[in-house]
Amino acid sequence: MKNYSLVYSPVGGAGEIGMNMYAYGFKAQNKVSYILVDAGVSFPKVDTEPGVDLIFPNPKLILDNLSDLEGIFITHAHEDHLGAIGFIASKIDCKIYCRKFTAEIVKDKLNKVNVSNKRVVTVKEWPFEVKLKNASVSFFPTTHSVPEASFLIIKSKFGVILHTGDFKIDNNPILDNPIDYKKLGNALGGRPSLCVVDSTNMLNENKGKSESLLKESIYKIINQSKGRIVFTSFASNLGRLKIIADAGEKSGRSIAVFGRAMNNMLSKAIETGVLTHFPNLIDPRKAHLIPRENLLVIATGSQGEIRAASAQLSRGKYMGLEIQDGDTFVFSSKTIPGNEIAVNRVINNLSEKGVAVIYSDDREFHVSGHTNIPEMMEFYKKIKPMLVVPMHGEIRHLIGHKKILEEKKIRAEIVRNGEIVEIDKDLNVRKDSSNKPEKLFVDGKIIAKSDNIAFRERTRMSSEGLVVILITYRKVKKSLNVKFTSFGLPRFEDYSDELKSNAEIYLNKTAKKKDRNKLDEFERFIKEDIYSICGKKPIIKIAEMEL
Ligand SMILES: [Zn+2]
């Protein structure tokens, strides 16, 4: 390798949708200085990660080189790009760079874990540059489904890097401006050596749709509805919220926003000026007083979250408002894989009330915030990268992305979570695949690795139940007593006496052989006994007591 090279390692995001976190190292004369890009979370799978609140990747490479870390850069305000910033910042003391709206969301995350806000550095967009020891970083505005999404343009003696974050090429966006290619060309100053690019929609061959195309259909449905109309969408999709609210205002309806996350996002966007001319809102507590035909509600909970406003409305009342027969409920969102059961529960509850539910995937009321293949190819034609590393996607998305690039004779390299590559100025790539990525699980107030949370035990407990056995030995009387307590086993009382009597006979027999403490064998006996009687394999806990 030559004197100057680049170290790149995805910590998370290059193997899943979510958990975005990427480490860049700038090597000059064998000394490396690092930055971390994004600090995202993902959400647990109900079947294999029960009970967990959040998951984020462990940035081992950065933790091993803390004194050489120069900052964390956040591309945009989505949870899968900044949701872990509180946890990361409480472990890693460095500056956090982001644009003004994103900065407010980051500060919220830091407040929650009592980390000082002072570390957050609000930066302006390109041509402003954050100067580091061996590199400079600037934020270049792009379009996505949250305001202020940014490309990072990273310049070092290795060459120019374009890290896209999440983006969609939208020539008619609602809040931000379309990508200014002339400006981008100036910012890059020629062909970038490396582009690290969003792969989320790189299996989608359809032409992408602009956010503004939704205006008409959203206005139409609101205008046609006779009763109340409720929209649910992602709280951070402020452009969408504006389309819905504008349409509501145009139809002469009062507008109420239900849900803390959405109200918080809206007030931060208005305060920082990224959202302007937003229609006036009514106090959500007074929404139930508005005549049905005059009310539009925008609510959180598009993923069926059990405590969110949409789920509460589907079960009964929210802030005194009950929706009913003749009202309309629109999902202006996509159901994220894994959330189908929760979303269907909300849809069924609403349907039972007689509410007309619109949730079709026909894209009349929702468009994606990521770039599909046709627009991505246009993008590459303009940017002409020398090397592309696909990021943010499951393995199938990364591989699909690479395949398309190769068809177009664009060089691409897949780098998976945990892998570390060193790329020299001539774009020779050396890969170290010996590091395995590690996930950390937020479980209440504890953060632990998966083996520590013992998911298998939790899963087994939830499907097989738990049996606690207390053996009491009475020394004086030379007798023993066994007590069974069960959790999660139906009609346990029907056979608990039989279990007790079998256990006591077994123990009395072995006791004569002075083998009382061989609990392993006793546990095996109990397991078999329970299985032969009820056909279940609960977790068994045995305690002994001597009187
Ligand atoms: Zn995003």
From the alpha-carbon coordinates, what is the Rg to the nearest angstrom? Answer: 28 Å
Large-scale geometry:
globular
Mean of all residue-level pLDDT scores: 94
Distance between the termini: 73 Å
**CATH class descriptor of the largest domain:** Alpha Beta
CATH architecture group name of the largest domain: 4-Layer Sandwich
Q: Provide the CATH superfamily of the largest domain.
A: Ribonuclease Z/Hydroxyacylglutathione hydrolase-like
Number of strands: 29
Spatial ordering of strands, largest sheet = 8-7-6-4-3-1-23-24
Total of DSSP H or I helical runs spanning 4+ residues: 16
Task: Describe this entry's structure for a reader.
The chain has 547 residues and is an alpha/beta fold. The protein is built from 16 helices and 29 strands. The protein folds into three domains: 4-206 and 368-452, Ribonuclease Z/Hydroxyacylglutathione hydrolase-like (Metallo-beta-lactamase, Chain A, 4-Layer Sandwich); 211-358, Metallo-hydrolase/oxidoreductase (Rossmann fold); 465-546, Ubiquitin-like (UB roll), CATH 3.10.20.580. The protein has an eight-stranded mixed sheet with strand order 8-7-6-4-3-1-23-24. A six-stranded mixed sheet has the order 9-10-11-12-13-21. Strand 23 and strand 24 form a beta hairpin. The structure holds zinc ion (ZN). Zinc ion binds next to loops.
